[in-house]
TrEMBL record:
UniProt GO molecular function: transmembrane receptor protein kinase activity
InterPro entries xref list: CERK1/LYK3-like
Species lineage: Eukaryota, Viridiplantae, Streptophyta, Embryophyta, Tracheophyta
Identification of the protein by name: LysM domain-containing protein
Topology of the protein relative to the lipid bilayer: Single-pass membrane protein
GO biological process, one term: innate immune response
Keywords in alphabetical order: Cell membrane, Disulfide bond, Membrane, Signal, Transmembrane, Transmembrane helix
Organism: Castanea mollissima (Chinese chestnut)
Gene Ontology cellular component annotations, sorted alphabetically: plasma membrane
């Protein structure tokens, strides 16, 4: 676990987790970290994704009708597939006013590396 600072002295953490590359369907392959969340009374999968996982939990075929309190909800957090196994990939929730340069600096990366894993990302450099 590595602490990072961004914005107005907001502290967050980079946490290393094991990921695996999975084929989701004929057109989608991605790295995922699979975990579970202990469901509380009144939770919905959308609410858990937004409030607990910053909106980054993969929706897939999940729906709110099958979520029961006191069970564990399977959560898949997407990462990017890479060609080199030695490369580190992180998932980051983009904050208001973030730029590619800001994110690259925060994550000790470079703009080109971020763009290669996020071809649809639209942020100011």
């Amino acid at each position: 676990m590595k602490p990072i600072m961004y914005g107005n002295n907001i502290q967050d953490y980079l946490i290393s987790v094991p990921c695996s590359c999975m084929d989701l369907d004929d057109n989608t392959t991605a790295y995922f970290y699979n975990t579970t969340y202990p469901v509380q009374h009144g939770d919905t999968s959308d609410q858990v994704s937004i409030e607990i996982y910053s909106g980054q939990a993969w929706k897939g075929k999940a729906n709110d009708s099958g979520i029961d309190a006191k069970t564990n909800l399977s959560i898949s957090l997407p990462f990017g597939c890479i060609e080199s196994q030695s490369q580190t990939v992180v998932t980051y929730t983009v904050q208001d006013k973030d730029t590619l340069l800001c994110i690259a600096s925060l994550l000790s990366s470079d703009v080109t590396g971020i763009q290669s894993l996020n071809p649809e990302m639209v942020l100011n450099p």
